[in-house]
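Quick illustration, no need to memorize.
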Amino acid sequence: MSTEPLATTTAAPAAAASERGLLIAMLVMVLLGVGAMFFIS
């Protein structure tokens, strides 16, 4: 995980990775919310 962007391909892979990261984060938040509701009830 380097902070320096690659000179050849920057836009497409970075956008795909960020979108995948956002989807994974949203899925994790939903799973945590459902788990918390199950634990509370």
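Helices lie at 11-40.
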